[in-house]
Amino acid sequence: MMEKVASAGLAFELTEDQLMLQKMARDFASKEIIPKAEHYDRTAEFPLDIIDKGRKAGLVNLNIPLDFGGGGASILEECIVGEELAYGCSGISTAMSVNNLSSLPITLGGSQEQKEHWLGERMVDKGQMAAYCVTEPAAGSDVAGMQTRAERVNGHYVVNGSKMFISNVNYASFYTVFAVTDPGKRHKGISCFVIDRDTPGIKISKHFDKLGQRAADTAEIVFENVEVPVENRIGEEGMGFMLAMQVFDHSRPGVAIGAVGVARRALEECVKYAKERHTFSVPIWQHQAVGHKIADMMINVEAGRLLAYQAAWMVDQGVHNPKAVAAAKAFCADMAMKITVDAVQVFGGYGYMKEYPVEKLMRDVKVFQIYEGTSEIQRNVIVRELFR
What we know:
Radius of gyration: 21 Å
Helix content: 40-55%
Largest sheet: 4 strands, mixed
Number of strands: 12
Strand order of the largest sheet: 3-6-7-10
Distance between the termini: 36 Å
Number of helices: 10
């Protein structure tokens, strides 16, 4: 981890509290995640025991405000923790951090009563998990194209539709769900709701068998005539799309830094291996083809971290800059994918074997180019902002 960088007369330095938070997360990853990561990857079991330990350590519900019993962390502080957890295993890290995402619509748009109940009582006091439900079978990148309907009937809403690729949905006690309340208004006709898991009409599929991040639960949820009280709507009708975009601005720096964590792990595994592995009577790092490949890994890890930190800092300061957030997410996802592919190449035939760590890193990191807005969508955002 780069703790201080001097450039053009400026110093970027973590505070003592942030360094302590970083060390706590790094120690947790070392002791609790890394020794068990292979097991959860192989079995695709959900890491409830690790999540429970993370909750007791203060690494779950990190961004819930202090007023409601959470960690009150800034987005930058979430990034500091997120890099360390993803370094250990990005699948387990995702499972641990979904509450941070699921709580955001309530934190950003909820009433005091909603925050006290869902964040304070349910997430913090009872230790419940939640799931964030936006993506649909035919509407992923095109959020405004969602088809799930919430029709107001006799003082409540009736929700019908389905959400696809939802993280932690089999283990969540409630869901923050985006649905269309006025089809004629397209993105201005979307609203957000909190729906309790015990509500009749909810069906959840089995955990999907995935390429990577296998420890993280991912499934489909279907709503069939699900009745939702009006008081469970977050904000006003028609504010859902704007709220979802605000959520992404807050969450994407954390996704970017997760990719940095995986890339850093690949870099360090390559450095270790390239010292030990000899060919033609010298350690392989002395071959320029290998040494330069590892040097490029370091350059990109450091650049990615700075982009993620910049995006996080901007959001923390209330600076609306979708271009910076999108650049961080796209760059970090793409560079981490390349680094893990190169890491397998550095390891050669051993890199292709499950007994070595880099093939898992390569499988795990691919989804960073897909979820929370594909790399292509991030570039669309950047183009839009450049040519306004």
